[in-house]
Amino acid sequence: MWQRIASAYLSWQVYATWILYIASTFINLYIGYYAVVLVGIGDIFHKNRAQILSKGAFLILGTLGLVCGFGLLSLGVAYFISGFVLRFLCKHYLIREHKFDELFRKYRHQTDYSKRHVLAMMWPNAWRDGLVTVTAYLTGQATVLMSSGFLTLYETGIYSFSMQVVNALISIASGMFSAYVPAIQSAYVSRNRKVMKDLYAKSMACAFHLSFWGIIVFAAIGIPIVQLLRHDFVIERSAFLMLALSIYLLNRHRNSACFISTMNKLPYTFSFIFFGVISISATYVGLAYFHLGLWGLILIPLAVQSIYNNWKWNQVVNRYLHTTEIRLMRQGTADLMRIVGNKIFKTKS
């Protein structure tokens, strides 16, 4: 499909950049274990700092390459280098802040657990989690490709821009949950369900409120600013809000699935893959044969995921924590207000 969409723009540089991007993605995943270790020990601060600095390196190198006339290839090279920057920084923080150099030397040549033994322990969940990750990625990218294939260039631009804005807002809103994942896993190991519930409630309430107000503010203020800068770029508020709802619900049940995975269980694997395939197929049929356009691209995935995933895994977690969605949000909101109140009180005193 991508050859048909972008046939007029293909050149050796595009192919070279594409190959380099694929290679960079593989290498960055392969050498990214230091970042995983930082998350595993709960050092989210240094992991995020390393990510910010590596993204900064990508932007600087990419910009310099474009200014110097190297074109699209400069972005592929910048992405390749940024992966090594992330690895170097994460390893640096592990050694400097946590003295991991001693552990590296001690266990580098350990013989208690062979690679085959470790792989045998990890493989049952690793392949399932890998399939879920690939399905989630393909599901997200498929809608962008289909928008290019079946919508006008104008509609594709609006859809892609709206996706970027909503994903950015919801990713920021979910930052607290990402930071709490190691603590939730630790609480599960120690069988402290109350701590798990408190952390989950605060992070889910934070994700809801930041997502809600961020989306509302952008719809009320951001859209008029965009239209002021580009008069021909008209974003329909109703479509934007419906897309935001769809992505929020998707992210919400994925967070619930992540919570379940901290208990070393992955019961959601089949449903994620099955409804992901159904979502892509139904969206393609709706666009290709019924010409549903932009609204079909938004509503079909929302309808498919709402059949099961959007409520099932939230319910599983809430039952485990002996709560409901409403009580969970009330508790989390109260905890957040208490934290904010304490910080304000300390600042004034």
Task: Summarize the topology.
Elements: H1 2-5, H2 12-30, H3 33-40, H4 44-67, H5 73-98, H6 100-107, H7 115-150, H8 153-173, H9 175-189, H10 193-229, H11 237-261, H12 269-288, H13 293-307, H14 309-320, H15 325-348
Short recap of the structure:
The chain is an all-alpha fold and 349 residues long. The protein has 15 helices and no strands. It has helices at 2-5, 12-30, 33-40, 44-67, 73-98, 100-107, 115-150, 153-173, 175-189, 193-229, 237-261, 269-288, 293-307, 309-320, 325-348.
Describe the fold and architecture.
The longest helix has 37 residues, at 193-229. This protein is mainly α and 349 residues long. It has helices at 2-5, 12-30, 33-40, 44-67, 73-98, 100-107, 115-150, 153-173, 175-189, 193-229, 237-261, 269-288, 293-307, 309-320, 325-348.
Strand content: under 5%
SSE string, helices as H and strands as E: HHHHHHHHHHHHHHH
**Alpha-carbon Rg, integer:** 22 Å
Structural class: mainly alpha
Unreliable residue runs? none
Q: Strand tally, please?
A: 0
Main sheet record: none
Overall mean pLDDT: 87
First CA to last CA: what distance? 62 Å
Fraction in helix: over 70%
User: Count of helical segments?
Assistant: 15
What sort of overall outline do the alpha carbons produce when their principal axes are compared? globular
